[in-house]
Design a protein that fits this description.
The complex is a heterodimer of chains A (233) and B (364). Chain A is mainly α. Chain A has ten helices and no strands. In chain A, helix 2 packs across helix 5, helix 3 packs parallel to helix 8 and helix 5 packs across helix 7. The mean pLDDT of chain A is 90. Chain B has two domains: 211 residues, Rossmann fold, CATH 3.40.50; 130 residues, RNA polymerase II/Efflux pump adaptor protein, barrel-sandwich hybrid domain (OB fold (Dihydrolipoamide Acetyltransferase, E2P)), CATH 2.40.50. Helix content of chain B is 24%, strand content 36%. In chain B, the strands form four sheets. In chain B, strands 7-8-9-3-10-11 form a six-stranded mixed β-sheet, sandwiched between helices. Chain B has a five-stranded antiparallel β-sheet with strand order 2-1-4-5-6, covered by helices on one side. The chains are: A mainly alpha (233), B alpha+beta (364).
Chain lengths: 233, 364
C-alpha cells in the first residue's frame, strides 16, 4: 500500500476539516443541548426539529440549502463576502461548515443525554453554596456533562471524516482544498484503474472510523466511572 | 438574628398558609407528616421555590418580599442547605466538595479542620462521593454546608434516607454541631426521636397550616396537640447534672428545684442533659401515696398539680398535663379514664407523678 502526495494531502485535509468542523460546532452544540435540556421557551420544539433536520434530510439537499444560504449570491454568503471578504462556497472553510451542519445533530444528542442524566438538584446545591450562573455552568454543569461532550467530540470528528453528499454539493471536489477522503475515494473510483487507490484510501478511512469509535467508548467509560455512574448507552 | 417567615401558596391540590418566627440560636424543627408543607417552607427560605406570596427576613435582612418584589438570589443568601439526598458533587473528591462553598464564601469563623474534626470525616477527604456510605455522605454534605459560612442552616430531613444504624451514627454529630456552633437552624423532620433529641423550638405543621409553635418542652407536654396523641408521646425536660449519689449507681439531675434519679451516661456534674419521659410510663398517685412509694421500685416521685385533661378517646385514655411544684417543667401522663375516676383526680388536684428511672431516656 503506497500513498501519492495527493493522497497524503487528502488525508491531512480531511483531518483539518474535521478539526475545524468540531471546533466550531462544539460550543454551539453545547449551547443547543443546554437550551433543549434545561430551558423552557416557546419554539423549543422547533429548535429541536431544526437541529435534527440534517440527520433525516438527504445530505445533497442539506448541501444545496447551504449553497442557497451561504453561496456567493445567497443572503448570508453575500453578506459575509461584503462585510469580511469571507467566501464559504467551494472553499476549505465551506467544507468544514458542511461537516459541522451534518454532525451537529449527533453532537447535540450526545451532550444532551449527558445533561439530562445530570441531577438538577446538584445545581441547586451549588447555588446554595454561593455559585452564580456562569460559575455553576463551569464548575458543575459542564464537568457533569463531560462524558457526553467527549463522546460528541470523538463521534463528531469521526463522522466528519466520512461526510460526502453535503460537502461535494456545497464545496465541490477541489483537490487540496475541499477533496477530503471520501471525495478522493469517489474520484479514484471514477477514474480508470483507480481501484487500488480507492481501496487503500478506504482502508485508511475504516481505520480512522474504528479508532474513533473505540476511543469514544473507552473515554466515555472512564469518565463515567470517575463520576460514579453506569456508562451511558 | 430572628428568622421570620410568612408564606401563602396554592398548589393544584393543596394550600399553604404558614407564618412563624424562629429564635436566633438553636434548632427550630418543622414537624409534620409528609405533605404538610415542611419542605416547601425550607425551599422558600432558601430561595429555591417562590410561593405566590412570601416574606422571609433574617434579622434586619429581607431575603424575599413578594409585596415589594425583593428577592435575593439563593447564591447570595448565605443560607446553607443540607438535602435529604446529600447532593454531593460526583466529579469532586470529598475535600473538593467541602471546599466548594468555602472558596466562594467570605472569610468566616468556621474552619476546614474544625469541621472535618467535628464530623469525623478526616479519613474520607481523598475519596469520591459514590464510594461513601449513606451516613458518611450526609456528614460530608453537612460539612460542605457549614463551610460556606452560612448565617442560617436549612436541613431537609437529613436522616430520612438512612437506616436506623446510620441514623444512630449521625445523630450525635448533629447534637455536637448544635452545641458547638450555635448556628440558627431550620430542621425538617417527621421523626419523633430527632425532634426530641435536637429541637429547641418546634413549629408543628398540618396540611399547610401552623398548628402550634413554641419551645420543645412546652409543646411536647401539651395534651391538646397532635404530638401528645402519638403512642410515643413524651415530655422533654432540659436538666442539669447535679452529681452521682453516694453508694448508688444512679445520678441526680435537677430541673429547677425538682430532682430526678436517672441512669448515668457520659455526662458529668454540671453538664446539661435532655430527658425524655414517655407519657405512658408516668404513674399518677394521690399525694399520700408518697409514704408507700418507698416500699416500691419507683425511684422518682414528683409533686405537682393537674393543669389540664384531654380525652384521648381511641385509646380509651386521658392525657394529663402535670405542672411540677418545684420546677417550671410540665410532665405528660397517659392513664385510663377509669384510673382517674377511681382516684377522683380532676383539673387543679394535687398529684404525685411516679417515674421509674429505667423509663427515662437521657440524651446528651
Amino acid at each position: 500500500m503506497s500513498f501519492s502526495d495527493e493522497d497524503i494531502q487528502a488525508i491531512r485535509l480531511t483531518l483539518a476539516v474535521a478539526l475545524r468542523a468540531v471546533g466550531v460546532g462544539l460550543p454551539l452544540a453545547i449551547g443547543a443541548a443546554f437550551a433543549l435540556s434545561r430551558c423552557r421557551f416557546p419554539g423549543r420544539a422547533l429548535l429541536g426539529a431544526l437541529v435534527h433536520m440534517p440527520m433525516v434530510l438527504p445530505p445533497v439537499v442539506t448541501g444545496w440549502l447551504l449553497l442557497l444560504l451561504f453561496g456567493v449570491h445567497g443572503p448570508v454568503g453575500a453578506l459575509l463576502e461584503r462585510a469580511f471578504g469571507v467566501r464559504l462556497a467551494f472553499t476549505t472553510a465551506g467544507a468544514a461548515l458542511a461537516c459541522t451542519v451534518m454532525v451537529f445533530p449527533v453532537m447535540v444528542r450526545a451532550v444532551r443525554i449527558s445533561l439530562d442524566a445530570a441531577d438538577p438538584g446538584l445545581e441547586q446545591a451549588a447555588r446554595s453554596l454561593g455559585a452564580g450562573p456562569l460559575d455553576r455552568l463551569f464548575s458543575i454543569t459542564l464537568p457533569l456533562a463531560a462524558p457526553g461532550i467527549l463522546v460528541a467530540v470523538i463521534v463528531g470528528y469521526a463522522t466528519c471524516l466520512g461526510e460526502f453528499g453535503a460537502v461535494i454539493t456545497f464545496a465541490a471536489s477541489i483537490p487540496g482544498q475541499t477533496r477530503t477522503l471520501p471525495l478522493a475515494i469517489y474520484a479514484a473510483l471514477q477514474s480508470p484503474g483507480g481501484e487500488a487507490r480507492a481501496a487503500s484510501l478506504s482502508l485508511v478511512s475504516m481505520g480512522l472510523a474504528l479508532a474513533g469509535l473505540l476511543a469514544a467508548e473507552a473515554c466515555g467509560r472512564a469518565l463515567n466511572r470517575r463520576l460514579g455512574r453506569a456508562p451511558i448507552r | 438574628m430572628t428568622l421570620s417567615v410568612a408564606i401563602t401558596h396554592r398548589f393544584a391540590d393543596s394550600h399553604l398558609d404558614i407564618r412563624f418566627e424562629a429564635p436566633e440560636a438553636g434548632i427550630t424543627a418543622l414537624f409534620g407528616r409528609s405533605g404538610a408543607g415542611k419542605s416547601s417552607v425550607l425551599a422558600a427560605v432558601g430561595g429555591l421555590f417562590r410561593p405566590d406570596a412570601c416574606r422571609v427576613a433574617l434579622g434586619e435582612t429581607i431575603l424575599t418580599d413578594s409585596a415589594t418584589g425583593r428577592f435575593v438570589q439563593p447564591e447570595r443568601r448565605r443560607v446553607g442547605m443540607v438535602f435529604q439526598d446529600s447532593r454531593l458533587f460526583p466529579h469532586l473528591t470529598v475535600a473538593g466538595n467541602l471546599r466548594y462553598g468555602l472558596r466562594r464564601a467570605p472569610p468566616g469563623p468556621i474552619g476546614f479542620d474544625a469541621v472535618v474534626e467535628l464530623l469525623g470525616i478526616a479519613a474520607l477527604l481523598a475519596r469520591r462521593p459514590h464510594s461513601l456510605s449513606g451516613g458518611e455522605r450526609q456528614r460530608v454534605a453537612i460539612g460542605r454546608a457549614l463551610l460556606a459560612q452560612p448565617l442560617l442552616l436549612l436541613m431537609d430531613e437529613p436522616l430520612a434516607s438512612l437506616d436506623d444504624e446510620h441514623r444512630g451514627e449521625i445523630l450525635p454529630y448533629l447534637a455536637r454541631l448544635h452545641r458547638t456552633l450555635r448556628l440558627p437552624t431550620l430542621y425538617v423532620t417527621h421523626a419523633m426521636d430527632e425532634l426530641a433529641r435536637l429541637a429547641d423550638h418546634v413549629v408543628l405543621l398540618r396540611a399547610g397550616q401552623v398548628v402550634a409553635s413554641g419551645p420543645i418542652d412546652e409543646l411536647a407536654a401539651r395534651a391538646d396537640l397532635p404530638l401528645a396523641r402519638r403512642d410515643d408521646a413524651a415530655a422533654v425536660l432540659d436538666v442539669r447534672v447535679l452529681g452521682s449519689e453516694p453508694g448508688r449507681t444512679l445520678i441526680r439531675v435537677g430541673s429547677g428545684g425538682a430532682h430526678l434519679l436517672v441512669r448515668p451516661g457520659a455526662a458529668t456534674s454540671g453538664d446539661r442533659l435532655r430527658l425524655r419521659i414517655p407519657a405512658r410510663e408516668v404513674i399518677l398517685a394521690r399525694p399520700q401515696a408518697a409514704a408507700l412509694a418507698t416500699q416500691t421500685s419507683v425511684q422518682n416521685l414528683l409533686a405537682g398539680h393537674i393543669r389540664a385533661l384531654v380525652d384521648d378517646d381511641p385509646a380509651r385514655a386521658v392525657l394529663v398535663e402535670i405542672t411540677l411544684d418545684d420546677s417550671a417543667a410540665v410532665l405528660l401522663a397517659r392513664v385510663t379514664r377509669d384510673a382517674l375516676d377511681r382516684l377522683g383526680l380532676g383539673v387543679g388536684a394535687p398529684v404525685l407523678a411516679m417515674v421509674k428511672s429505667v423509663a427515662i431516656e437521657t440524651m446528651d
